[in-house]
Design a protein that fits this description.
Number of strands: 0
Shape: globular
Strand content: under 5%
Distance between the termini: 24 Å
Helix content: over 70%
Order of helices and strands: HHHHHHHHHHHHH
Structural class: mainly alpha
Number of domains: 1
Largest sheet: none
Oligomer: single chain
Radius of gyration: 18 Å
Length: 235
C-alpha cells in the first residue's frame, strides 16, 4: 500500500541498527556482564538509549523502554489493527487462548499473505506449547499430524527436548526461529504494512535475546547453556 511508503522508509533506516547474529555471539562469548554490555553499547541506537537511563546498567529498564518505544513508533507510523495486535500479548489481562483467537480473526479480516502465514505458524506452535503447559498435549499425535508440513522440524526438536528435560526452552526457541524465517520475507517488500510487521517482530525477538544474554551473564551461566536458548537474528 502506498500509504505506508513513508513508514517503510523510516523502518528501513532503523533496520540498520538491529543486532546481527555475529554481534549477539560476541556478547555471548564476552567474559562477563560489563563486557557484554559494552559490546551492546557499540551500537549507536542502544548507546543513545543507555545514556537516557537513570541507572546506566539497568538493562531491564533499557529493554522495557525499547519495547515501549518500538510500540509507540509503529503505532504512530501505522495505526492499524495488525500492528496493535502484535503488542497486545503484553497486556497482563490477555490470555494466550484469547490472543490466538484475536490473531486468527484479524488474519481472516485482512488479506495480508505474510501476516496470515505468521498467524498460522504462531497459532499451531503456541497451541502445542499451551497444551504442554496444561498437560493436555498428546505429543505423538501432534507430531504425526504435522509430520509432512513445514512445522515438523520445530515441533520434533521442541518435543524431544521437552520429553528429556521437562523444559519448554528449546520449543520456545524453535517457535521463534521458525516465525523469524517467515517474517524475514518482509525485508524484501518495498511497500505495504509487511515491513512494519517484520520490524515489530524482529525487535521482539532481539529484546528476548538481549534479556537472555545479559541475565545469563549476571547469573554467570555458561555460554553453551545460554546459546541453547538463543534465537536467530532478523539481519
Amino acid at each position: 500500500m502506498v500509504e505506508f511508503a513513508y513508514a517503510v522508509g523510516r523502518i528501513r533506516a532503523l533496520e540498520v541498527y538491529l543486532l546481527s547474529q555475529s554481534q549477539l555471539l560476541r556478547m555471548l562469548e564476552a567474559k562477563d556482564f560489563d563486557t557484554a554490555y559494552s559490546i551492546l553499547r557499540e551500537n549507536p541506537h542502544y548507546a543513545a538509549k543507555i545514556d537516557q537511563l537513570a541507572h546506566p546498567f539497568d538493562y531491564q529498564a533499557l529493554l522495557q523502554k525499547e519495547l515501549e518505544d518500538t510500540k509507540v513508533l509503529l503505532e504512530e507510523l501505522a495505526p492499524h489493527e495488525v500492528i496493535f495486535v502484535i503488542f497486545e500479548k503484553y497486556r497482563p489481562e490477555v490470555t494466550i487462548g484469547g490472543y490466538l483467537f484475536t490473531l486468527k480473526q484479524l488474519a481472516k479480516k485482512y488479506q495480508i499473505p505474510l501476516f496470515h502465514q505468521y498467524v498460522q505458524g504462531f497459532s499451531i506452535l503456541n497451541q502445542l506449547k499451551l497444551d504442554l503447559l496444561l498437560g493436555e498435549a498428546a505429543t505423538e499425535e501432534f507430531e504425526n499430524k504435522y509430520r509432512y508440513t513445514d512445522y515438523y522440524l520445530p515441533i520434533k526438536t521442541g518435543l524431544e527436548a521437552y520429553q528429556k528435560t521437562g523444559s519448554l526452552a528449546v520449543l520456545e526457541r524453535e517457535i521463534d526461529n521458525f516465525l523469524l524465517q517467515i517474517i524475514k520475507k518482509a525485508k524484501y517488500q518495498v511497500f505495504g504494512i509487511e515491513p512494519l510487521i517484520g520490524y515489530a517482530l524482529a525487535k521482539e525477538i532481539e529484546i528476548k535475546n538481549l534479556r537472555l544474554l545479559l541475565t545469563g551473564k549476571i547469573m554467570q551461566i555458561k555460554p553453551e547453556e545460554i546459546k541453547e536458548r538463543l534465537r536467530g537474528s532478523y539481519v
